[in-house]
Amino acid sequence: MGASFRATERGVLSGPDAVGAPGAWRAVEAWFAAQGWEAFEFQREAWRAYLRGESGLIHAPTGVGKTLAAWMGPVLEWLGERADDGLEPARGAQRERERAEPLRVVWVTPMRALASDTVLSLLEVVEGLGLPWTVEKRTGDTAGSLKKKQRVQLPTCLVTTPESLSLLLSYPECRERFATLRCIVADEWHELMGTKRGVQTELCLARLRAFAPGVRTWGVSATLGNLDEAAKVLLGPDGSPTMVRGMMPKDVEIRTLIPDEIERFPWAGHLGLRVLPQVLEVVEKGPHGQRAKGQMEEGKREENGEGGATLIFTNTRSQAEIWFKRILDERPDLLGQVAIHHGSLDRSLRAEVEGLLSDARLRCVVCTSSLDLGVDFSPVERVVQLGSPKGVARLLQRAGRSGHRPGAASRVYGAPTNALELVEFAAARDAARRGEIEGRRPLERALDVLVQHLVTVAAGGGFVEEELKREVRGTWAFRNLSDREWAWCMDFVHRGGESLRVYPQYARIRRVGRDEGTEARRHEEEEAWGEGPNRYEPGKADGSPGPLVKAAEGDGQSGEPVRWVVASDAIARVHRLGIGTITSEMVMQVKLVRGARTTGGTTLGTIEEGFISRLAVGDRFVFTGRVLELVKVRGMTVYARKARQMSGIVPRWDGGRFPLSTQMAAALRRKLDEARRGVYADPEMAGVRPVLELQRAWSVIPAPDELLVEVVTTQEGFHIFVFPLDGRSVHEGLGALAAYRLTRGRPLSVTASANDYGLELLSPEELPSDEASLRALLSPEGLVEDLLGSLNSTQMARRQFRDIARIAGLIIPAYPGTARPQRYVQASSDMFFDVFEQFDPGNMLLDQARREVLEAQLEVSRLRATMERLAGMRMTIKRLDRLTPLAFPLWAEQLRSVHASSEPWSEKIAKMVVRLEAEADEQAAGRGKPARGRGAKDGGRGRGSAGAAPAARRSTRAR
Amino acid sequence: MRVEWAGEELELLAQRAVWWPRGATLMVADLHLGKAAAFRSAGVPVPAGTTAADLSRLGMLLEATGARVLVILGDLLHAPTGRAKETMEAVAAWRAGGGRAGVEMLLVRGNHDRSAGDPPRQWRMAAVDGPLEYGPFTLVHEPRPARKGEWLVAGHLHPAVALERADGRAGGMKAACFWARGGSAADGRGGFLILPAFGVFTGMKTVRPRVGDRVFAVGPERVVEVRGAA
Question: Do A928 and B36 count as a contact with CB atoms less than 8 A apart?
Fold first, then answer.
């Protein structure tokens, strides 16, 4: 470490421009020249700051040059040290692994898929400069042989994910292995911040800083609305980040495909197949058999944005599947030139698609956010955004995936899936021009992540309580952690909380050192109790400490302070399986079998268990663009074969439907106000004009200071539509709140639905709809109490608890393709939620679930701001006999509607039905066979997408 | 809720049990005692109180019905690692107390019992393998195809139904249920009655009843028959 400080000090003394060794700078400049490049000024700025010993954040709206800006600092440092030693840097091939430079850099990347590409681009520099460095990745798919080598010695630069880093910290020898660390790079930090993986990263970095004092941390981020905060989160509250701003954006062209006949364009829906012909025209701009034409011709085509490949971004995986299939139905000649890419596909399939795309062998890839990040695919000339991007940053990020040749512009074509999305595309361009980019709110006090981390650190060599507490409070996420919260987390992993004091069987961590005698006695107390034929033998796997633990105990006896270590090797093993905070629904592996075979097969990817549990053998579903027929389900594997018939249902993956951001909502209100004033300047606004004029004719287009309410009675009941125009997450909160307030104190049943424009309250009975009642319904007074009181918040907390239960280690992990391990200790998060509520109501993880619902899901602070804004607006109540263009999508949507009812349970049941299977095709059920899947988890109903017109919707509903 | 099934009058109880008055028998399934303890020994902190809650509810039922026989349709114990001292002692004390000493208790072994082991002698519970003829019923743990004229009473599935709103709007719910097939005495084909899981920490499994089946949803205070929709 001494050498690095020498270089650093000299740099500081001799001023910012002369930092580092001149020879080292020359070598790096020469490498750039050899590539035909010249270093950008912001890159030099970042290197100098690194050499001065500073930490910070490199941010730029596009991908250009950020990797090298972060990477060359440590390289220059090493070259400088070598110059000090009077040694010329070694030329030629990398030396043997064992003799290579020890660990210097940990490079954290948000996605496994990015790790391999990052290794390649870092190695380019290493090889170009002939450094005796090794660069290796360590992710979930690193081969076992390499992992073994890494246990002996880490590479010079370790490229890893937050989960794998955390895993490395769970091994006892980690402190020594990271001792030589100089630099941590957090790549695509904007992706991690604001998530629990980000919190996990914060905790891991705090650990690394404790192992290697003086280590510098550099974040690499896209443009965010709150960059300063992002840097603080990365470095911790005590850090003083240096901000390095990258290149200004390339030109971004945002165009929208305007439907020819807006009159026939749907008012609602999310599939957007109506614009398929126009999207195909965009794809057509790519090369089609014109290779024969000369170079000149090709150059001209590129200038016009022609040639190259098209990325079609969809907002959901289901939509990607549907579009992929429909493109091939429409254009069978494109077979082999169109591909699909989303997060549920098998990694090898995704890698294949990425390879083909890089090699310019594809014309079009239908993808989801799975391709938002990653190396640049230079053949990509244009991007189609299918459906509203809902956020400015997202649109710019996706646009940035195109046009990577020097001087080329990024081109994004917006493809609206319903009429109002035309307004949203116009609004997005507007906000992008004004530079109104969304921020990301960092998470705080995620106790589930802390609970996991405590066990990780206990397994990774153990800890002294006060030291770790100080370290944890040095992170942004836990800077305000109270003593009580800390004590609760410790107690939870040690004794399981207050209610388990008399049950000695449970412990994930235990004390060694001064009072270890008491602990050991507690373990001995575990005894068998059984006289049945299968006697219970006290299990070695459960209580007895293994070799690793014994080693730690040795430390304790030598008079050191009390340390906490993992309770047993068995606990450590299970814990390592569960490390990681990326949580999704339980997924099953999908295997394609051929012919009459029902075993073996190729892996296609993964699919949510909830979806599979709704299928019966022989049912058809669409996956990887193929129509498959379910053959059987075994353990965590689904066997399917190609179906003969060509139609099937498309799985609905959870998530993927983003709510409108605050920035987008504000821009949307500006656009609607233009329309109200008769200004239709954008092509999108001109396109959607007939629809907006209809809204104005039937009702009004609300002014900025006007809250529009539409009251409609249909045979379904009494509807109140309210249009705050503030994004779905806010409207969901408003809807839940209003439904709760309406049903409080009297037996009534209300359904609340929300979309980005407003909310709908529906009841079979007439609801109070005068201005005073409506204002009371939307009043910010008693907001938090009422939200917590609503039944809906309980359901949401229950959903939120799924992630928490897994992260906190309540759910013993089962992986796709394997049998469920430890089948006697499988329980759903719902079951945990119930037992905690009933038997341990003070459990802080329950509080956290409620807090996450309020803060993250219902965005209570944004909700309060909206309600305060609404209170100051005039209210226009329109009583109508039909649904307006603004109301119709809300009515048709219903996707996330919530039901509040104060009726007694038996009356609610009386309004419900259970769907029965036909007798004929259910011989299996005659044997009392249950539906597959562990139904303990809510499967969620598959709801058909709303049709384009009321008539279509009815038939969807009828099913 | 009173129902007639297999020519017998039965009461389906919201406490997840079946009361058969003519046989003075209370039937429950899937207690999974010691499940919480099994989790604890694997390092998963399930709060205390689940066993006590199950035992107290079962005790209240026995008292309220005055049952002379308690039939447990399998999965009395959850796992070998669930035979924690505290749990086993609690059950032994429960068995001896509250006037329950005179109640005959019968376990039809389930899949969990086979690995978790039979109840200890102090519990005084007879353990047998199903199927067991019991009056007009055939008691089993895992449901199987009913033979002609056979009336299976079973557990194992932890059945629950997904309920949809009849008006097609969103807002469905899930409820544990009793699930019956066949059952009119004239119906010679036989049928089954599957009980919901009794234990509080057991979970549910959504089943798919077919046309002609009867489904009784279990609510907080009562059992209600659910309308079917094809």
Answer: no
